[in-house]
Amino acid sequence: MPEELLERIEVPEVPIAPQEDLVPPAPPEGLDTILYDYDEREARADLRRQIAVMEMALARLFGSAFPRKNIDFSVPGMGGPRMLSVDDLEKVRDGLAARIQEVRVHLHDYAVVEESNRELIEEMLADPASHKWERVFNEDIGEPGCKHWHVKPKWGVIGMLMSWWRVKISSGCPLAEGLRPPEPD
Amino acid sequence: MAELPEEWEVAPEPGWIAPDLAEEFPGLSIASTSLESAIGRSPEALKERLRTLSDRIAGAQAIQLRQQPIPWAYRVFFRHIGLDPDTTRTPIEQLIFERMHDGRFKSRNRVDDALTLGMVEVGVALRAFDADRVQGGLGLRLSGEGEGFEGRVSPLPDGTIVVADEKRALGILFDRTAEGRGVKRGTKRVLLAAIGVRGVPDIALEEALWVAGSALRA
User: Fold this and answer.
1) Residues of B with CB under 8 A from a CB of A
2) Cβ atoms of residues A113 and B110 within 8 Å
3) pLDDT of residue B100
4) Rounded distance, CA A110 to CA A103, Å?
């Protein structure tokens, strides 16, 4: 991650009086108000830094979530490209924070199910006869590919009658077949 | 593969950034270079480079892409300017998405193929304009109130970030190009522009322009 994106930016102090008709040109002596010393650019810069960190967190979750499906990673935009106000940046930041939480919960749920499926594979291997015809796919344990573990009888019907059960592990995804399609141009 | 014509070095010309944008987005930059080039179908050498590039990009790279420094910097900038990079994809992510969808980088024409090479090789956002229809230096600014945009009936929303020359908006940042300002049949000189954001080094912009420019001249 380029650290410069996460650095605080030095923003020159600029007095801001947003509604000059409502705000006196200078604060009464000895009475400082937020209207005179608060610069929104600092707030925007800080929010942008937070968004950068969260975007990386979400990107890492995206990478670790593969090949699990049906996880939403989107965070609504604010109708750009334009300079966002503090409010808009806060909405983006909050949207990212909420999305990261949701994705973590999803991944945790997946992890619980996948762990129980891994335990099931171990049980199937230890005692195939207790798990007749059960099948666990790679997808069920959060792995890519088409491999699966399937409890089947050895020698078909004879194995069924004799209770000769075993775990058969598939050999992976079928290979691509046929000729390469011709170039269109 | 055909040899590159000799005696061409990319000479990127740094563009201007409006002060309000520069203050808000340190690191935002634009660099451009113009070159004479034939327009039309890509030569076989360029198509071969696209095929080679297609073979180098697979699903694993696509999944990890957004964690890499330059693509991540663009994603962050998209968030900063109100775009959702999962809806309006960053230029590099759009190309990788098309590669996954189509099974390869499809050859479209010489300019688009050159931009694809430059963007995928380096990760930097590139655009092309008709150099003879650009007046003055290229830059980035906010659109003014009620500012028109060629090819669009309604004016641009106030404060839209645009790529502009000294007279008019040439394109919306990371969006469409103004009508008549892009490269089309009859274009003699192409203006390549690289848009940099915070976290993308200047050398990457230069390299992307060089890769795309070399491909255009091949």
Assistant:
1) 20-21, 23-24, 26-27, 41, 63-64, 66-67, 69, 72-73, 75-76, 78-84, 86-88, 106-107, 142, 157, 159-161, 172-175, 198-199
2) no
3) 93
4) 10
* Minimum-distance CB partner of B83 among A55, A77, A96: A77
pLDDT along chain B (218 residues), means of 10: 59 92 93 88 92 92 93 96 94 95 92 95 96 93 92 91 94 93 90 95 95 89
pTM: 0.81
Using 70 as the pLDDT threshold, list the residues of chain A that sit under it.
1-38, 179-185
What pLDDT sits at residue A38? 57
pLDDT of the residue at B17 = 95
Could A55 and B76 be called an inter-chain contact, meaning their C-beta atoms sit closer than 8 Å?
Answer: yes
Q: What is the pLDDT, as a whole number, of residue A17?
A: 45
- The gap between the terminal CA atoms of chain A, to the nearest Å, is 40
Q: What is the DSSP string of chain B?
A: -PPPPSS----PEEPEE-HHHHHHSTT-EEEEEEEE---SSPPHHHHHHHHHHHHH--HHHHHHGGGSHHHHHHHHHHHHTT--TTTS--HHHHHHHHHHHHSS-----HHHHHHHHHHHHH--EEEEEEGGG--S--EEEE--TT---TT-SSPPPTTBEEEE-SSSEEEETTSPBPTTTS--TT--EEEEEEEE-TTS-HHHHHHHHHHHHHHHH-
> What is the pLDDT, as a whole number, of residue A162?
85
* Cα separation, B218 vs B216, whole angstroms: 6
Provide Rg for chain A, Cα atoms. Answer: 29
Mutate to test the interface with B, among A3, A40, A42, A82 (most CBs of B within 10 A): A82
Specify the pairing of strand B189-196 against strand B125-130.
Answer: antiparallel
